[in-house]
Amino acid sequence: MKLFNTLSGKKEEFVPIHENEVNMYVCGPTVYNFFHIGNARPFIIFDTLRRYLEYIGYKVNYVQNFTDIDDKIINKAKEEHSTAKAVSDKYIEEYFKDAKGLGIKKATVHPRVSECIDDIIALIKDLEKNGFAYNVDGNVYYRVSKFKDYGKLSKKPIDELMSGSRVDISDEKESPLDFALWKKQKEESEIAFDSPWGKGRPGWHIECSAMSRKYLGDTIDIHGGGEDLIFPHHENEIAQSEGANGKEFVHYFVHNGYININNEKMSKSKGNFFMVRDIAKDFDLEVVRLFMLSAHYKTPVNFSFDILKQTESGLKRLYNTKENLEYMLKNAKSEELKEDEKEFVSSLPKYRQEFKDAMEDDINTANAVSTIYELSKDINSNINENSSKEMIKAAYDMYMELNTVLGLLQKEKEEEILEDEILALIEQRQQARKDKDFALADKIRDDLLKRGIVLKDTREGVKWEKVK
Q1: DSSP state of 33
Q2: For 56, 219, 275, 355, which has the most beta carbons within 10 A of its beta carbon?
Q3: What angle do CA 216, 107, 226 make, to 5 degrees?
Q4: Phi, psi of 51 (to 5 degrees)
């Protein structure tokens, strides 16, 4: 398997540190709002890489953090007359709702910055001891000039980084490129933690270095994120982790490309800034997942509702193949494979090989998706109601095996569970009405309504439907 490593600037054979195990860290969201379509791309891409690694036999320790201490969260709390914790708790819960819609599995660990303060302080103390950090009146900064490899990820010389740096310039810093590891508390109402340097809170970059070290060790296999994180975030993580631990931080840095909206860069000022939650009003989020996987992760992609419409049609075709196979499996007239079916069944493994070849060539999901469409077409041309159960099952198993690796065609299972649950609640409501417990009956109805389930009392009994 080959991955494009941003560190080396080329595709490299993937060789994990431990033979059957992969340690992988992916930058998660700052939880002050719903996440947008740009955030969705790395979440989907690295979820798919994780799924593939598990598919080929690795145990994947997958860490994705939540930044729950940040100026944006503090400002949101002020706007909503709430607390930073209440804001971050709310949007972490909302993250999981949208992530589920996109088919994203939960990470092995989802650490929060607020839960790792001791680990962050320990890392900063190691940097101080090694001469990489200095304290100025309660603000602690990283001394970039001390780290000779600074710029090795972004491939820019120090002078160029200095002139283009987005880091705030402060008179108290030794260099404009030095960045904050610990920020002292400015006012009493501001969220703050005790530290050897006084009350304050961590800088943005230090959190990922500390959480990665805590859950995955000093050196990890893969670090993922969007292209926009290469500098300064990931560059600074390298400086912090290697300065503190004295070891290589990451073997493979993998970064996905940008998303444009209707051929323009996404920005709030242009009004082309889409939250995933907003898109869910018009499209099942599995359509968004298929859209993201239909291009190579490194190429920029153009997002538009017209393209989503086309992707939606493609997803429906894939589901139709699945549903037709399931129907024919239930209604097959013969069990055993017929002589004229053997050639088709023996040709099925070629699709697995094509799929694996695509995924092992730097996670080429675009070619993997094309393989699935080809398999779907082949199935529809060769299988009908007269096919044997053995032939149908062989095709179904291969089809679902490949789709599952990409996190596609998984919705029906959830819908079946949901339907059983709804029917049980309707029965409970009917019993409550018989018992004249109208408060419980109304509560069940209202709870279902919050989930988009509308109950209708008809002559034939209670009917339900899902509304957007």
Answers
A1: S
A2: 355
A3: 85
A4: -60, -40
